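Q: How would the structure tokens look for this protein?
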Amino acid sequence: MAVVRRLCVYCGSATGTEERYRQAATALGARLAEAGIELVYGGGRVGLMGLVADAALARGGRVTGIIPTLLHDREVAHPGVRLEIVASMHERKQRMFDLSDAFVVLPGGLGTLDETIEIVTWRQLGLHEKPVVVVDIAGYWAPLRALLDHAIAQGFAPPRASSYFLFVTEIEDVLHALAALPEPQKAGDSRLT
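A: Here is the predicted structure in token form.
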């Protein structure tokens, strides 16, 4: 079983058009706190990011935000979380990776898509075997799944690429899915060498 002490959540700095997105972010933050799992996220007080952090804090959870100076200076940082200020977006992604045992993706925009694709690419390259769970609320990530299938069908991604993501449709399934996964191997210890 995978042991998750710190979970990185990628999600939007906007709340989106569907109430279900907001409900999912709030439910995930609450569940992480209840399970004693630390939330690692982008450090914002806005959008789904802010909702997930607020919900975790409201339930007594531990929350670490990683925010680049650029966004901190625009006053979007969450004042209630343990905040790490880094120099760049690249450093932010690396630090979030370093702190986390697994990743969950909620709805979001280009930044969320960038983070998701990068962390899965790192997995493809053998840099990690940490779980990546995509929560497909109301079919939001169905186009991503279709694009992945298309890339595989067209020979631009290996068939095993579909195993780099785990798609679920409900927040209730996230922790169960993570608990059911095998303990990740460290890079270099696996079939990649």
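The longest helix spans residues 19-34.

The mean pLDDT is 92.

Upvote if useful.
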